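Support request from a user on the community tier.

User writes: "When I paste my structure tokens into the form, the page sometimes reloads and wipes my input. The last time it worked, I copied everything first. Here is what I submitted, just in case something in the input itself triggers the reload:"
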């Protein structure tokens, strides 16, 4: 009887947990429905990711999973060690809540594994369940009582070691950012140089995006819209100008990624999105179109190469816009107001 009751409780809590995951999506679905964009949401989340999963990858998922789990534990020892401790100890004591949190963690991991992202910056969905497990593990560790003094000393020494290890890793990871910041406030580094290598040495450089945004904002009105081709949507935010299209970056239009051609089965969807983009640009008539040549992802030709492959967009820009200025790796084109013909 006790086992049946326990199973019912676990089933009920699992249902509530799954229901919570579903419920948090409802406001998003309702918003897109009221905006008349529910079909776009379905295409962006489900259809696009379905084709994305068909991309060829030159690595074995199991081997990659083992390597990335190892890297995760080395990079986040506080979460890794104490979450593993919390999970192991909780399951040994047959605690139902730990079982549920473990299932939550497993589901998050499988989601990352299936999407082939693993533990790079996409690991965010794993942080909440691992944080709960780590808190449980730390609580178990603190509450543990040992009769032998040497074991008690070893327990606290272990916890101090993990905390120090985490602190050292954090300092090593953030040291380049803080060292540049100290150089900047001391006056050894100019504002342009400091912002020019903001974040990761130029991969997403803030300064040219900032200058480009100021340039465009100073030559447009608030009601004007712009379009940025490339993986640099920060220009929209920094310029406070609306996007002329629903697309904020180039992934839906890619023909190659990780050095491999995207499967031909994706071509109809990509073609439909390309037509949508050109149609929206024709309708909104952005004052400026900015072509980024920033290959921010070395494994995918996101910017100029893909722009050249997009014939209709290339013709639209070159036939209706005039090159005005180059800032960093941004080519800025201004609308040719003398052209009123809306055909490609």
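"...and here is what came back when it finally went through:"
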């Amino acid at each position: 009887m006790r086992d049946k009751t326990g199973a019912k409780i676990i089933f009920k809590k699992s249902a509530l947990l799954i229901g919570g995951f579903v419920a948090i999506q409802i406001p998003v679905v309702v918003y897109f429905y009221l905006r008349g964009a529910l079909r776009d949401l379905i295409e962006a989340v489900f259809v696009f990711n379905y084709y994305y999963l068909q991309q060829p990858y030159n690595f074995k998922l199991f081997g990659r999973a083992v390597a990335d789990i190892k890297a995760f534990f080395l990079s986040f020892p506080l979460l890794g060690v104490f979450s593993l401790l919390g999970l192991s100890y909780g399951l040994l004591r047959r605690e139902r809540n730990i079982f549920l949190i473990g299932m939550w963690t497993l589901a998050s991991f499988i989601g990352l594994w299936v999407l082939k992202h693993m533990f790079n910056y996409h690991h965010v969905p794993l942080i909440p369940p691992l944080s709960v497990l780590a808190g449980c593990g730390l609580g178990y560790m603190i509450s543990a009582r040992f009769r032998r003094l040497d074991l008690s000393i070893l327990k606290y020494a272990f916890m101090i070691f993990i905390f120090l290890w985490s602190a050292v890793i954090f300092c090593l990871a953030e040291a380049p950012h803080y060292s540049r910041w100290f150089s900047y406030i001391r006056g050894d580094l100019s504002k342009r140089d400091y912002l020019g290598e903001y974040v990761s040495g130029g991969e997403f450089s803030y300064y040219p995006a900032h200058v480009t945004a100021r340039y465009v904002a100073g030559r447009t009105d608030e009601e004007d819209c712009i379009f940025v081709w490339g993986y640099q949507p920060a220009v929209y935010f920094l310029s406070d100008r609306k996007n002329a299209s629903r697309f904020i970056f180039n992934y839906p239009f890619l023909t190659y990624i990780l050095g491999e051609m995207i499967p031909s089965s994706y071509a109809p969807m990509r073609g439909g999105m390309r037509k949508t983009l050109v149609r929206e640009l024709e309708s909104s008539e952005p004052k400026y179109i900015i072509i980024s040549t920033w290959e921010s992802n070395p494994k995918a030709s996101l910017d100029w190469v893909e722009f050249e492959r997009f014939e209709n967009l290339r013709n639209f820009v070159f036939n209706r816009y005039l090159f005005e200025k180059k800032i960093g790796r941004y080519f800025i084109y201004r609308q040719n107001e003398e052209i009123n013909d809306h055909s490609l």
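Agent notes: The reload is a front-end session timeout and is unrelated to the input. The beta strands are 225-229, 242-243, 256-257, 260-261, 288-292, 321-327, 330-335. The longest helix spans residues 149-186. Escalated to web team.
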